[in-house]
Amino acid sequence: MQSQYKRRAKVGIIIWLIVSISNLYLGFSLLPQVLQTGNSNFSNPAFFLTGFVGYASLIIGLYYYAKSKGYSGWLGLLGFLQLIGILIIVLLKDKTNPNSAKKSNKLLIIFAAAILIIIVFGVVSSMLLSKIDPFKQITEATIVSCTDQCNTSGENSNRCILTCLEEKNIISKDSECSSKCEDSLNVSQCVVDCVLPEK
Question: In the prediction, which pLDDT does 199 show?
């Protein structure tokens, strides 16, 4: 590989890796909100900016990687395919080095390990750093949403809240929780205690 391009390729791909890990973290952090409401903060400019930086750095990195292997820089556009694009360029034979077969195998192993690390790090970091318990977070957010919805509509009754929770599949219609909490003084706390018992 031509070292003048190799260094630039590494920088672009490393920037893409960092951005990918941060996007995974942000995505897993917003997962409960997306599952609960169907809405999220993905319209936030930060997502567009990190997405743009990620794609741009990967395309530039793959451009230089393709050039370093003796191919046209247009192959950098494979960056739009993300992991598949990287895999394609990694598997291309190095035209500048006849002994590239061994290096390609090593690169493929490194690539597979990097992808595994990205996935594991994204999932684990979002769970550990945010201390996300998705089911608990979704349940509590749904209870608040249903309570607000019933208060706004003027139907400030336990039945309204329970019906809303049944419609959102937090509790089932004929469940013990539904009958137990209907006459409760604090229906929200009753549902939390019933659906999310202490371990």
Answer: 38
* Per-residue confidence (pLDDT) for residue 183, from 0 to 100: 79
Q: Is 190 exposed, middle or buried (0-12, 13-18, 19+ CB in 10 A)?
A: buried
The predicted pLDDT at position 179 comes to 78
Tally DSSP H helices, then E strands, for the chain: 8, 0
Which residue is listed with tokens 């990205």? 118
Q: Give 178's contacts (C-beta < 8 A, 6+ positions apart).
A: 162, 166, 171, 172
Angle, helix 83-91 to helix 45-68, in steps of 10 degrees: 10
**Residue 170 region, left (φ>0) first, then alpha (ψ -120 to 50), else beta?**
alpha
Residue 159: phi and psi, rounded to 5, are: -60, -40
pLDDT for res 18: 84
DSSP letters, 134-171, are HHHHHHHHHHHHHHHHHHHHT--SHHHHHHHHHHTTSS
Q: Determine how many CB atoms are found less than 10 A away from the CB of residue 20.
A: 22
Q: Which residues of the chain have pLDDT under 50?
A: 1, 198-199
CA 111 to CA 79: how far, in whole Å? 15
Cα–Cα distances in angstroms (integers) from residue 123 to residues 22, 29, 50, 126, 159, in the given order: 11, 10, 18, 5, 38
